[in-house]
Amino acid sequence: MAYTKRHDGRKFDETREITAKVGVIKNADGSAYFKIGSTEAYAAVYGPRELYPSFLKDPSRGVIRCYYNMLPFSGMGERVRPGPSRRSKEISYVTEKALQPVINLEDFPNTVVDVYIELTETDAGSRCAGICAAAMALADAGIPMRDIVTAVSAGKVGKNILIDLDYSEEAIDDEPVADMPVAMLPRTKEVVLLQMDGQLSEKELADALVMVQKAIDKIANIQREALKAKFADGDRNVIGE
Amino acid sequence: MVIEMSLVNKSFKEHLNKTLGKDIRYDMRKKDAFRDIKVELGVATKAEGSCRVTMGNTVVIAGTKLSIEKPYPDRPEEGSFSVNTELLPLSSPDFESGPPSIDAIEISRVADRTLREGRAVDFKKLLITSGEKAWTIFIDVVSINDDGNLLDASELAALGALLDTKFPKVDKNGIIDYKTPGEKRLEVDSMPVLVTVCKQGSNLFVDPLRAEEEFIEGRLSIGFLDDGTICALQKGGDAPLTTEEIKAMCALAAPKAVELRKLFNKGDKGATKKKR
Predict the structure, then answer these.
(1) Quick one: how many helices (H) and strands (E) in chain A?
(2) Which chain A residues are within 8 Å of B153, Cβ to Cβ?
(3) What residues in A contact B47, CB-CB < 8 Å?
(4) Taking CB atoms and an 8 Å limit, are A78 and B43 in contact across chains?
C-alpha cells in the first residue's frame, strides 16, 4: 500500500508541532528546551570554563565539546542503558561539527564550552532536536555566534519526499524508506550536518534539500522567537506548562 | 587562594548558623519549611510511567521502563524493581560525565531502600510464570537542575513514576509490544516518602538548598509510610548524631512526609496529569 497520505494528517513538507523555550535550567550558563512532536530535548551550556586535562587546551581559541544522550526511559522500546554508546558518541561528534562553524571562541583561548544534550522522549529526529536546542542554549549563554543553527530531517517513503519523519514513518517496511538529518545555517543555507540512511537519486536529494530549506526558515524563526521571549519576560520560561 | 576560600567559607558558615538560630534560612524560609513543590505525572510519554518533581529550583525527572526477566533463583515467585540515579552534567557545573559518582549511588540506594522496604510494590504481583518470567521495573531518576535536596526530590519522583506506570501489552509469544500502551496500571500498595533533616550546629532543618548543603555537618534521611512507620534510614555527613537529635529529627520529618504525600492527591493542589 503506497504511503500517499501521512498517518497524522501532515502535508509532506510540514513539520510536527514545535515548542521552544530558553533559560529552562537555572544552573547552566545557557539552556534551552526544544520539542518537535514527541521528541523532546534539553540542552545546557557551561562555559567558557577551564579545560581539563590541560593537554586538550588550545592557546589560540576555546574548544567546544558536545554530549548527546538518550535518557534511559526516553525510548519507545526497551530501557536505554546509561552511558555512552557507539551511536551516542557519533551523534555527539557530528553535533559538535554542526555547531562549531558558527561559534567564535577566539576571544576565549584555553577554555572549553561544554554542551550537554539530554533527550527525555524520542520519536525520531532526536539529533536534529538536540542541535536546535543546543544552538539556542549557546545563544542564551551569550557565546558569540555568526548565526543560529537549525536542523530538521527529510526523507523518502515510497516515492514521496517528506519532512520530519516520525518513528512510525521511519519504520515502514513495505516501502523503501530513506532518512536524512540536515543541519543548516538559516541565513546562508550552508549545510553543517548531513547524514542519510536509505537510498535516494540525485534529483531526490536536490528536491529534499529544497524542502529542507523551507522548513529550516520556519524552525529558525521559532528558535529566534524563543530567545526573544526570554528577554521579554524571563519568569515565564520555567520548565513545564 | 586556598586560605582565602576557607576564610570565606568560615564566615559564611557562621552567618548561616547565626541566622538559622533566628529561624531564617538563606532564602528566607523557616527551618521546617519545604520550598514550593510541583509534582507532574506523565511527562515522558515513551516511558511506562514518569514524574517530574520541581522543588524550588531543583528539578528531577523519573521514568520507568518495564521488561520481562527470569526471577532470581531464591525468589522464584517474585518480580523486582531497581532505582538508578544519574546526576547529569547538564544539571550542575559540579557534575561530570562518566560512571555514577558516590552521591548518585547513595541517592539510588536510599530511594530504592525507601520504596522497597516501604513495600510500595508487591513483587509477587509482578510474577508472570513461576520461576520463569516476571516483570522488572527499572526506575531511572535524572537531575535536570540541582539546587539541593536531590535525595528527597528523587525518591518523590521515583514514587510518582511508579504511580503513573502502566504495563505494556504482551503478545501471544510473550514479547513486549511497547508501542501499544496497556490498560493495566501498576498497583502501588503504599506511599513511602523520604524526608531528609539537616543538622548545622544545634539547628535542624529540612529541604536544604545547594548553598546550605555545602555547610551541613550532618543529615538524616528518613523514609515514612502512610501511618508514620519508619521504613528506611540513612545517616549522612561527618558529624555524629545524639539519640536526642535523632528523635528530634524524626519528630520534625514526620509531618513533612504527610505534606509531601498529599502532593499526589488528586484535585486541589495535587499532582497534575498530562494526557497520554
Answers:
(1) 4, 9
(2) none
(3) 73-74, 121
(4) no
- Convert B9-40 to b/e letters by CB count within 10 Å (16 or more is b): eeeeeeebeeebeeeebbeebebebbbebbbb
Q: Is B108 on the interface with A (CB under 8 A)?
A: no
Question: Do the Cβ atoms of B43 and A240 come within 8 Å?
Answer: yes
* Beta strands per DSSP E along A72-172: 111-121, 150-157, 160-163
Half-sphere exposure of B276 (CA within 13 A, CB side): 22
State the cell numbers at B226: 502512610
Distance CA A27, CA A5 (A): 44
Q: pLDDT digits over B152-196, tens only?
A: 999 999 999 999 999 999 988 889 998 877 789 999 999 999 999
pTM of the shown model: 0.92
What span, in angstroms and rounded, lies between the C-alpha atoms of A56 and B8? 32
Other C-beta atoms lying within 10 Å of the C-beta of residue B248 = 16
| DSSP-based three-state secondary structure for B50 | strand
What CATH code is assigned to A18-230?
3.30.230.70
Say whether pLDDT at A171 is over 50: yes
Rounded Cα distance between A97 and B174, Å, is 43
- Cell matching residue B229: 512507620
Q: How far is B229 from chain A (nearest CA, A)?
A: 32
Which one of B142, B146, B272 has the shortest CB-CB distance to A71?
Answer: B142
Q: What is the pLDDT of residues B17-69, one digit of tens each?
A: 888 889 999 889 999 999 999 999 999 999 999 999 999 999 999 999 999 99
Cβ atoms of B64 and A76 within 8 Å: the answer is no
pLDDT above 90 as % of chain B? 80
Structural domains of chain B ordered from first start = 15-270 (3.30.230.70)
Torsion of Cα atoms, A115 then A170 then A150 then A89, to 10°: 20
Chain A residues lying within 8 Å of B92, measured CB to CB? 27
